[in-house]
Amino acid sequence: MKKLFAMLVTVCMAVSLLACSGAAAMGAAKKSGKITIWAWDPNFNIAVMKEAKARYQKNNPNVQIEIVEMAKADVEQKLHTVLASGVKEGLPDIVLIEDYNAQKYLQAYPGAFDDLTKKINHKNFASYKNKLMTVNGKIYGVPFDSGVSALFYRTDYLAKAGYKPSDLNNLTWDKFIEIGKKVKAATGKDAYTFDPADGGLIRIMLQSAGLWYFDKNGKPYIANNPALKEAFATYKKLMESGMIKKTTGWNEWVSAFNKGEAASIITGCWIIGSIKAEKSQSGKWAALPTPRMNLKASVNYSNLGGSSWYITQGSSNKAVAEDFLKSTFAADKDFYQKILVGQGAIGTYLPAQNGPSYTVADEFFGGQKVFSDFSAWMKKIPGINYGVYTYEADTALMTVMPEYLAGKLTVEAALKKAEDQLKNQINL
Amino acid sequence: MLHNPATPPAKTRPPFASFEKSQNRYGWFFASFALLLLGLFMLYPIISSLYMSTISSRGVIQTFVGFGNYLKLLNDPVFLQALQNTFIFFLIQVPIMLLLALVIASLLNDKSLRFRGVFRTGIFLPAVTSLVAYSLLFKMMFSADGFINHGLMALHLIAAPIPWLTEPFWARITVMIAMTWRWTGYNMIFYLSGLQNIPDDLYESAEIDGAGRLQQFRHITVPMLKPILLFTAIMSTIGTLQLFDEPMNFSAMGVSAATIGPGNSLLTMSVYIYNLCFKFMPNFGYASTVAYAIVFLVAVFSVIQFRLAGDKK
Fold first, then answer.
1. What domains are defined for chain B?
2. How far apart are CA A383 and CA A145, in angstroms?
3. In the predicted structure, residue A50 carries a pLDDT above the cut 70
4. Which one, A216, B73, B237, B302, has least CB within 10 Å?
5. Under an 8 A CB cutoff, do A398 and B258 touch?
């Protein structure tokens, strides 16, 4: 009897052991391995990635995820250097690339990035994001944040000048300048602050009219571009309005509005984190659609910046990297709610935009439901193809800008000069 | 073959020949490591980049263009602007800085001056600060509502803030001020060491002949320092033609801003190389061409300066 019992126990144990090892074998069929991710901005992209990592590892404890934080310039520099050298090692599995640069990487290094056309359901993402990562009908990335642009302004300054928020509806740049001058007179504060060496403002104006530095065929479209002409004229009016605080570089710009020295900024929604960093200004801010230009095509919605995730072709753990992005950024609605509240990250994953966090009233913005506003505006942004040479064009235009502002060049001559420079630059 | 000039006459050669040979062999053996490394890390990159400068590339897509890049260079408005900017710095900042360094050096060489060591250290100190740290510090000081503008306004020297970094003209002035601050002490040290080699009796006899301080400076100090002056001039030329850190840090760093300084007023050739590699569509071939243009210019200016200095050797 004892023997029988002992045997029974042994058999039981063996069975349970087998069952255990069976389960272990099944676990191994799940994902395992290590992936490395490169990104910039600890308060935004890195924080978002950490959240994605935690969520993914809950279901895939065998996957190691290393998130490497670098300055944006360093990410780009390293990526270029390694890709150009042709070495297979030293690249991350997943890398963040700014949207303006996406085509540049995809076209300069064919075959360097993983084709995700069939692996990710891109229909779930905003179409303008898919467009900029498509080459020859193949889609290469997983869209991430939107750069939907907005006019962020101080309601208290505006009230001092006798304006109500409703006075800013359907705003044009001319009206913006008119109001700005009165705000400056009433408060002594500059109405608007930006970095004149940054081409971002021109890009916001251009995209609001659905046009870009290049035409549909990728040819430079500068000299005769009506939106660009109007943008230059508007830029000049702004610069001569006497209501602008000019800054140099990011830090100076952020500190200008954090210190309350300017009544408004016009930029991408990713700036929310930096605005909110100054807690004493809670309740004093509000967000509105961007002003539009005096052009029929120009709308009050535009975009600045934004970035997306890409998988490198040389990745030794491509399957894991794909699965990771697929099950977080391309599937997890809950994840998007979390990063929206945490980082103010407006993802471009459409199914997530009906989530509860989007309708939260934000006390910092005086109870405004900023996120549902942003996602509504996002859908109205004119979709355009940024092409390959955004930064070359940016440089050419901002190079002629001081001469145009000083009256040494007419707008036509300035744009002609910029186009010539650009053509020379991109001519191979 | 190495030849030892101290080798005794032929008569005594047989017993020494094998020694000489083996000495050469060992000499070559020991030198070979250095030569190998030199070849690998100096010669190879030089030749490789020369070859690269005949290629036009878009990332990994390469086309052989021969001298095409060099022809493009001559018609490239961005390069010409970078060249022009660099020359503005070179022609204005370098002479001012060298003259200032010379004057300070001869003042601090005066043996009757007390606390000479303190002054020398103080003026040399900027040269050992970190390039990035000092650039950022200057950028803060010269910002629209920075220390400099506040100071000048408090002294009632200016009525409105000077747009130090937002107007092309002032941006260049700011960089020149910063560079002068950073490098004057560095050059002064060379002059000081040169001054030590000028015999005191020259000055004494000049004084007996009734020469004033200024005359002594012009007719003794400057001519006697000529080799050092030439050295600093060439070093400053090379430094200016390779100028990178100040323009890069005074603008909002290459990648995020559209231009280097307002209207690209601070764009230098080295920054252009950076842009061609990492900001624009990566064209490493054309970037090497620009690099070779710098090499060529440095060579030309060094030769000119040697000639001007009248150095026959």
1. 21-68 (no CATH), 70-309 (1.10.3720.10)
2. 15
3. yes
4. A216
5. yes
Neighbours of B297 (CB within 10 A): 18
> Which chain A positions have a beta carbon within 8 Å of B163's beta carbon?
246
A424 touches chain B (CB under 8 A): yes
Contact criterion met (CB < 8 Å) for B59 and A83: yes
**Residue from A70, A204, A240, A428 whose CB has the most chain B CBs within 10 Å, to mutate:** A428
The predicted model scores a pTM of 0.85
Structure tokens at B256: 């995020």
Give Cβ neighbours of residue A192 (< 8 Å, ≥ 6 apart): A176, A180, A238, A243, A244, A245, A262, A263, A264, A265, A266
Write out the DSSP string of B185-200: HHHHHHHHHHHHTS-H
For the segment A89-102, what is each residue's pLDDT rounded down to a tens digit? Answer: 889 999 999 999 99
Query: Among all chains, which residue has been given the structure tokens 């200008």?
Result: A256
Contacts of A195 in chain B (CB under 8 A): 252, 257
Beta-sheet strand order (sheet of A307-311): A63-69, A33-39, A94-98, A307-311, A141-143
For B42-98, the pLDDT digits (tens) are 999 999 999 999 999 888 888 999 999 999 999 899 999 999 999 999 999 999 999
pLDDT digits (tens, 9 = 90+) for A334-356: 999 999 888 888 889 999 988 88
Q: For an interface test with B, which of A105, A248, A250 has the most B Cβ atoms less than 10 Å from its Cβ?
A: A248
**ipTM of the complex, rounded to two decimals:** 0.83
pLDDT, mean of residues B260-289: 91
Distance between CA atoms of residues A146 and A129, nearest Å: 8
Q: What is the pLDDT of residues B227-264, one digit of tens each?
A: 999 999 999 999 999 999 999 888 865 456 788 888 89
**Tokens of residue A143, six digits:** 């869209």
Q: Which residue of A lies nearest to B57 if distances are taken between CA atoms?
A: A428
Dist CA B256 CA B278 (whole Å):
12
Residues 6+ apart with CB under 8 A from A207: A302, A303, A381, A382, A384
The two structure tokens encoding residue A23: 């389960």
In angstroms, the CA B200 to CA A365 distance is 76
Domains belonging to chain A, first-starting first, are 33-146+305-354 (3.40.190.10), 149-303+382-386 (3.40.190.10)
What is the total residue count of chain A? Answer: 428
What is the sign of the dihedral through the CA atoms of B122, B126, B129 and B134?
Answer: positive
3-state secondary structure of A414: helix
- What proportions of chain A, in percent to the nearest 5, are helix, strand and coil? 50, 15, 30
